[in-house]
Amino acid sequence: MLSRRGGIAAIVAAMMWFGAVGEAAATPGDADEIVLGVKLRFGGRYDDVRMCVASAPGVKGGMAADVSFFMDFGVHEGWVIHVDLPVFRPILFAASFRMLQFEPSVTAKYRVRTGSAVDVIVGPTLGLSMHYGPDYKSAGSGAGRTASFFAMGPIFGGYLGLDFPRPDKAFNFQVGISPYVTPLFAIGDPDGHRGVIAGGLVDALFRWGAR
Predict the structure, then answer these.
(1) How far apart are CA 25 and CA 32, in angstroms?
(2) Model confidence, pTM
(3) Residue 34 burial (10 A CB sphere; 0-12, 13-18, 19+)
(4) What are the backbone dihedrals phi and psi of residue 63, each rounded to the nearest 5 degrees, phi first?
(5) N or C, which end of the chain has less CB nearby within 10 Å?
(6) Is 41 in contact with 67 (CB distance < 8 Å)?
(7) What are residue 46's DSSP bridge partners?
(8) Residue 23: helix, strand or coil by DSSP?
(9) How far apart are CA 121 and CA 110, in angstroms?
């Protein structure tokens, strides 16, 4: 058993440790930052699996666009976890084309502080692509529309961007590029659709809560 003196020393040490942790947590910085925002995305892709609503039947791929909500969680000084939740394309495709295309993702972003008005942001991305609808040979409607199928696959990508800090303002702006590749595999599909999607997006981010 611990002696009374040892017990008092342990209690004092514990109080000092909890005080240090509390002080560190109260220190402003990336490690305790939570940022909410809206992201506008536009680009293009090669896609030999899914129908593209902006391309003619038989064309493998086309333009890509979306609007998403995101949240940044600070995990360490200079590092944030960026969680992206697309909203525009899933709603539009479900309402207008009887399709599902939903691609949430997570990016580990590192901020390279330059000491100037612009910081560099870089990091890897991992996500999940889910599709329900016809293949790229399909027409949008009518007799030329092929059978729908469900497919999914991992998204491997990255992010390179420029952040414009505004510590005295309510929000700041960030712009970047997001290249990616996605192997897609059909599930329960008698035709066995599978293929690879490769593309890139230009991202414009409006970030609220950034210091």
Answers:
(1) 7
(2) 0.81
(3) exposed
(4) -75, 160
(5) N
(6) yes
(7) 198
(8) helix
(9) 6
Q: What is the amino acid identity at position 87?
A: V
Instruction: Count Cβ atoms within 10 A of the Cβ of residue 201 and give its class: 0-12 exposed, 13-18 middle, 19 or more buried.
Output: buried
**Token pair belonging to 205:** 């981010």
How far apart are the C-alpha atoms of 110 and 27, rounded to whole Å? 19
Alpha carbons 37 and 108: distance in angstroms, whole number: 16
Distance, in Å, from the CA atom of 40 to the CA atom of 206, rounded to the nearest integer, reads: 9
Both structure tokens of 67: 């609007």
Backbone angles phi, psi at 4, to 5 degrees: -60, -40
Phi and psi angles of residue 166, each rounded to the nearest 5 degrees, phi first:
-140, 75
Q: How far is CA 84 from each of CA 47, 81, 104, rounded to the nearest angstrom? A: 22, 10, 6
| pLDDT digits 0-9 by tens, 81-91 | 999 999 999 99
